[in-house]
Amino acid sequence: MKARILAIAWCIAVLPLGGCVAVADLPGGGTNPGSSAPGSSAPGSSAPGSSTDELTGTLTVFAAASLTEVFTEFEAELEEQNPALEVVLVFGGSSALAQQLLAGAPADVFAAADETTMQVAVDGEVVQAPVAFARNLLALAVPRGNPAGVVSLGDLARPELIVALCASEVPCGRAADRLLLERGITPSVDTREQDVRSVLTKIELGEVDAGLVYATDARVASDRVTTVPITGAEEVATTASLAIVTGSSQQVAAAAFLALVTSSGAVRVLRAAGFTVVP
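^ thats the sequence. predicted structure below, dont judge the formating
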């Protein structure tokens, strides 16, 4: 992946989650995504002598952390098809990314882990016509070997356990809160994290005894975490969607990325990662 660490982070003072989400550095000394250096081709246009179908410039994609592996694969495919195009992936909590877009952060595509977060971007008129493409389920994950002996969702109420959940404002946290409420469980929560990968990392490192993450994240770390069967996850499934950012200078490239993610060829990638594909 060609994304580099930003020298600048967008801090959203009004964001209830607090803090900042790092954004990938943009080529050309921090120019806007898709902007052209003097004498270069315009964003999305063809360089002299190239195919008229070739995409060029930089395409910046804001995406939920739970989409890291599949979007990295889609990035590689689109760049292989279009050697003059650089795809910059920016992963983080969906809610924080939406707030950055509302504050004017430059991006071309936004992919949220749930429809509630995407609706925030729609209501703020920063994205256009979102398309749902995959569903995800929660999983109860524990450090490899399950040293605390967690056997059910109800164990999250045990006060002696160290439990991690996503923040209530982010998709994985909303789903976790709803699942626990519907099961009549009051969890003994020790930490609330800003995205699902932060919860997963604490479980992997053994810093917590248990946590609720997405099934796709548990699959990524299957050699480092163990999952405990739970019921009711289907009832709080989250639906991921993506949309082109309003005012993007890379409308054609953004549409190409959206078409790739929702194509029949993407079904294999999504299912292999543990997602359920939206018809």
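Residues 41 and 48 are 8 Å apart (CA to CA).
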